[in-house]
Amino acid sequence: MFAEIITIGDEILIGQIVDTNSAFISKELNKIGVSVYQITSVQDDGKHILNALRAAKSRAQIIIVTGGLGPTKDDITKHTFCEYFNDQLIENKAVLKHVETLFAKYINTPISNINRQQALVPSKATVLHNANGTAPGMWFNEDNTVYVSLPGVPFEMKHLITNEVLPKIAREFNRPYILHKTLVTYGLGESALAARIEDWENNLPDFIKLAYLPNLGKVRLRLSAKGPNKKLIQKAIEVESRKLSKLIGDLIYGTENEETLEQIIGQLLTKNKQTLSTAESFTGGKIAESITTIPGASAYFKGTVVSYATSIKIDILKVDTEIIKKYSVVSAPVAKAMAENVKKLMNSDYAIATTGNAGPTKGDSNAEVGTVFIAIATPKSTIVEKFIMGSQRERIVEKSVNKAFELLQKEILKF
Amino acid sequence: MFAEIITIGDEILIGQIVDTNSAFISKELNKIGVSVYQITSVQDDGKHILNALRAAKSRAQIIIVTGGLGPTKDDITKHTFCEYFNDQLIENKAVLKHVETLFAKYINTPISNINRQQALVPSKATVLHNANGTAPGMWFNEDNTVYVSLPGVPFEMKHLITNEVLPKIAREFNRPYILHKTLVTYGLGESALAARIEDWENNLPDFIKLAYLPNLGKVRLRLSAKGPNKKLIQKAIEVESRKLSKLIGDLIYGTENEETLEQIIGQLLTKNKQTLSTAESFTGGKIAESITTIPGASAYFKGTVVSYATSIKIDILKVDTEIIKKYSVVSAPVAKAMAENVKKLMNSDYAIATTGNAGPTKGDSNAEVGTVFIAIATPKSTIVEKFIMGSQRERIVEKSVNKAFELLQKEILKF
């Protein structure tokens, strides 16, 4: 059984927005055993949408469409579904009431004719309640195919997927079991890794697929299995990942489920009742931001000094001017002092510090673009490492943030 | 003339990664007058890729394919192109030399058989030099259709698009002129806005399209025009956006080209030779991070104190404990003190401060989730505003960061 996703909107095709809806929907469908065969992004154009629907129907049993449900002229999804199903729009009392309630509560004006049109729904549709907006979700079942139409606003779409679409699919379809397991490896490139596990890969059972996902110094190996018997699938994935661990145990850094390194660190610190602070130069607050996107971070995260200007390193982080003069701001001694001083200043158990040059020019120091120092201060000592992170600003920052979390995790696990 | 994009990779269809490549490619193609008709994401599966290529050919003259060019078994794009064109792989001397050079420089080991396979290229392909990796880009021209195959790693793909693909398309195709202009509006919902400009919208010339893009309190109105005559297109867009300004001048906040609000603020500060610092509580460094992603930010950005813990607000930002006791940490007086004190501490001309509750629990204060105070300290005074930002952590932070930049820009423009 396959699903397909069709995202509607010229803004996607001119690159004005990145389509993040598809990844969310795919991931959620996968969790309940529904594989996504194809994702198609099409224009706000009736003919184009009709063709995409017909093509998807030839391949999939569930078709999820997002976008084009707003109240304005460029939104044509409802009309297009009417054409596709030879149907017509009728006013839905429940939706109208919901729109009126939302307006009374948040907008404080009576609803206009345009708003009222949000309550028009094709007669063949089952309405899915959109608690977060005025455009209703719609579910059609025709000719053994289910079509679901959702608003493109992520906040509304996510709510509908989680609370309406997934439970309804779970009720109405028999689904196989899908399991992914991802092993994160460091230290060997994609091709060298492939050479080392070639024999094992060639002998994988048919229902298990292996994928290599190289990114910023890591290669993630993803095992995917699908079948009707949950226990069998789980066991097979376990057996194969154990075999893999024997072959490349020295390279495997961890497994990746839904968790990021920041989350794992958060769990470790919470468990240990320990705290963290950061002093960031070229990473500009990105480490702090990654930490604080995790709900509950206030239990272990104290704060940050972003010392973009050298004067802040001296005035607030109390880095000795002599050290800066002697070694320059981009140096191991400065990174060390930043980590130790912010740890003291914020009274935390651990601290991360970064200083480096992300370019495009040499800036306050004479360090080459891409030169980076990361320091981790722990309850016992401080480590500093130097890295050369390439030449592209964005990648230098991103790789450094990854590296900082990797180093911190290692240190925490030592205790 | 249309292009289509096909992105290959199971990781997209299981939602493990968000496809950002398509948005980049679409935007770049648009700039040189090539419209993207459809974007299709398909599995690492030969049959599926062949079907997608055939379908795209029926609609487009340029087909850009990303992904599946790695050295491992799950990468099958090259073999699939051979099948599609009835072609075979041959070793390309230049690519082999490039792979050897990269290995000598970065990996320091002789290349393996697997690496050597990166130099195998279909005989009908023109090689596009991939300076950032081992997988070559490929350009095929058959039956009046151009097919371009690029690696899926964004860093490699972007380099190939910018330096190889776009110049070659520009040389080989006559292209129309495409122009987008986006007006950013605040203060009125999508439907009320539509009602106000209905007459104007109905009278737009055929070659101009209007789109509504609502997002986090803003509605962006995008005018798009396409045609052979550059001057005519530019003039028509100007005329229509002037008409629009007359109708909703009170709501228009600015136009959006490629520039973000952070970039505009950066330009203003650089021009005025003024500086900025931030004191962030629940935004956790996201404001600093947004500022520092802009190359050259060191000219005007001094630094940040992320005071996630209340103790940091007291110890480093010197917020009076009496004020905190009297008003709670989430209050206008605390936001004001944070802004004024960080401005003084970092010796900057402007400062942004945020304090609020992004949830999920009430935390250090008793403020309801979604309650936010943003303060802007300027050379003359400090303003503070209170906002209720909904209930979802991510959205509360994102909306607040937007709002902070919006308030700062207004203040800077007053001087």
Structure explained in plain terms:
The structure is a homodimer of 415-residue chains. The first copy, chain A, has 415 residues and is of the alpha/beta class. Chain A has 3 domains: 2-172, MoaB/Mog-like domain (Molybdenum Cofactor Biosythetic Enzyme, Chain A, 3-Layer(aba) Sandwich); 177-255, Alpha-Beta Plaits; 261-413, CinA-like (Maf protein, Alpha-Beta Complex), CATH 3.90.950. Helices cover 42% and strands 26% of the residues of chain A. Chain A has helices at 10-13, 21-31, 46-57, 77-85, 93-107, 113-116, 154-172, 190-196, 198-202, 230-248, 261-272, 286-292, 310-315, 321-327, 332-346, 393-414; strands at 2-8, 35-42, 62-66, 89-91, 120-122, 126-128, 137-142, 145-150, 177-186, 208-215, 218-227, 252-256, 276-280, 301-307, 350-356, 371-377, 382-388. In chain A, the strands form 4 sheets. In chain A, strands 2-1-3-8-7-6 form a 6-stranded mixed sheet, sandwiched between helices. In chain A, helix 3 packs across helix 4 (77-85) and helix 11 (261-272) runs parallel beside helix 16. The radius of gyration of chain A is 26 Å and the shape is globular. Chain A starts with a strand and ends with a helix. In chain A, 46% of the residues are buried. Chains A and B meet through helix 1, helix 2, strand 2, helix 3 and helix 6 of A and helix 1, helix 2, strand 2, helix 3 and helix 6 of B. Strand 14 (301-307) of chain A pairs antiparallel with strand 14 (301-307) of chain B.
